[in-house]
Amino acid sequence: MKRLLLATALIAVSGAAFAQDVVRLGTEGAYPPFNFINDAGEVAGFERDVGDELCKRAELTCEWVTNEWDSIIPNLQSGNYDVIIAGMSITDERDEVIDFSQNYFPPAASAFVATAADADLGGVVSAQVSTIQAGYVAESGATLLEFATPDETIAAVRNGEAAAVFADKDFLAPIVAESGGELMFVGEDVQLGGGVGLGLRESDTELKAKFDAAIQSMKDDGSLNALIEKHFGPETAKF
Amino acid sequence: MFAACADPKAIEGLTWTLCYLTSGKHIDFYWSFVTVLTLLALTAPLALAMGFLGASAARSRVFPLRLLGKSYAALVRGVPDIVFFLFFVIALDQGIEYLKSLAVCEGGEWPWQGLEFRVCTEAKVPLGAASAAWHQAYGFGLAVFTFAFVFGAFAANVLFGAMNAVPNPQLETAEAYGMSQPQVFRRILVPQMCCCSCWG
Predict the structure, then answer these.
(1) Is residue A102 part of a domain?
(2) Quick check: is A239 in a domain?
(3) In chain B, whose CA is at the least distance from the CA of A9?
(4) Which CATH number goes with the domain that contains A217?
(5) Is A205 an 8 Å CB contact of chain B?
(6) What is the dihedral of CA B128, B130, B132, B138, to 10 degrees?
(7) Cα B95 off chain centre by
(8) How would you class A238 by CB atoms within 10 Å of its CB: exposed for 0-12, middle for 13-18, buried for 19 or more?
(9) A226 lies in some domain
């Protein structure tokens, strides 16, 4: 027993010696162009570039982790990673349970996409579960059809299960462009949320300050705008 | 993966297909199959073992043990699977880290603060600085345990039914021949139960 305790203590001490500040970044990996898994099987996209740059500026060692969207907030609170960087819009409801850094992506328009221009936006509308868009559809009086992944929300429109899909316009734009006329934007764009920010535990004020400073420095020298343009095209809203 | 695949424009036909099927994404895709099959291979015997323990406990003569066995099968089967696979894993992970924190952390603060779970960095399992492989192995271990725990309850129910299906006179006869309780269990109940439980 004594030896066991000693061994445990030794492991703990050696572990502590190794434990320089590794910050684990949690993302979904299924939301291009914000974050996705590239052909090499690694996390890529706008947030990969932003995250790596922020870690460099804040002088942190960062590691990427993927997690299902459904449980992305509980796992942050449980300490399985330290930062959510997954295209998460800043909303009051989320702000009650976690903290947000300042936004690294400006408040963006959400839009409806359907297969026909006269689609009934008061009918069945698909959206990803636990997104601001899902909340908006539920409140609008339309029938909300929720899916776990963004891909499924699009598929629901293609196979006629839903009349339209409601999601971030920046996510939908390339899909509409590649559909060859099958899918189109319908209705008015809607402004939702306070932009996309990093989600952090409320107790992690020190880490939040570091990331806030790093985001500010990227905003100031224009490198953030350059990355937004690289991944979303020149027409997207910038800072 | 192969050097010939580096330039997508220069390849065609079979080479293209080969390159396509060995891209990083596809390799990940194949790995997910391997992971699921490994999980199944590890979980099936473990779940059976859990079920056997649960069923034996449910038939025990000791009341607390009987209560434990019966409530394990009834409770776990009654709780929706989504609760287990979404939140039980998190709770299990927190439980492990809490136990470790008792041994390695100083101060001994209560880790559940509001919605957050906070233990000192040394108590993290695996440590934050550990390589990704350890994190994956740990997650896999949690999954094996959770699956075994959940499916064990279903197996316990089946095995309990099978044990009850063994005719009582057989067990009584064994006792009359002078076998002890463990001997009756080992030599009569378990072999006789097996043919009943196959159907389940």
Answers:
(1) yes
(2) no
(3) B104
(4) 3.40.190.10
(5) no
(6) -80
(7) 16
(8) middle
(9) yes
A91 and A165 part of one domain: no
A30 and A89 share one domain: yes
Rounded to the nearest angstrom, the minimum Cα separation between A98 and chain B is 9
Asked if residue B126 has a cis previous peptide bond (ω within 30° of 0), the answer is yes
Exposure letters B109-143 (e unless 16+ CB within 10 A, then b): eebeeeebbbbbbbbbbbbbbbeeeebeeeeeebb
Q: What is the mean pLDDT of each run of 10 residues along chain A (239 residues)?
A: 43 41 88 86 90 92 89 88 91 89 88 88 90 90 91 92 91 89 88 88 90 92 90 82
In a domain, A157, yes or no: yes
Q: What is the pLDDT of residue B40?
A: 92
Decide if B25 and A37 are in contact by the 8 Å CB cutoff: yes
3-state secondary structure of B33: helix
Please give, one letter per residue, the 3-state secondary structure of A68-100: CCCCHHHHHHCCCCCEECCCCECCHHHHHHCEE
Looking at the complex, does the CB of residue A40 fall below 8 Å from at least one CB of chain B? yes
